Amino acid sequence: MLIKIVLFALVLYMVVNLFLAMRVMIKNDHKKGPMSKYIGRRVLTSAIIVIVILLAISTGLITPNPRPY
After folding, report:
1. Where are the domains of the chain?
2. Which residue from 14, 23, 27, 37 lies 20 to 30 Å from 65 (Cα-Cα)?
3. How far is C-alpha 48 from the chain's CA centre?
4. d(CA 20, CA 39)
5. Per-residue pLDDT tens digits for 26-68
């Protein structure tokens, strides 16, 4: 259950950074920082999510659905 909460928090953080980058792009507001900072955080977060999922599957914390064939 804890791993699902961590994954949900990481996905939420990724979505927040996506909207922050969109706001910087639309308003052209460079005081908040460059848009690439938020996009970079989003890419890093998605890489961390993939690594956490792979580690959780390999250790048995989560189990994938059975194969259909």
Report:
1. 2-59
2. 14
3. 7
4. 9
5. 887 666 678 888 889 999 999 999 999 999 999 999 988 888 8
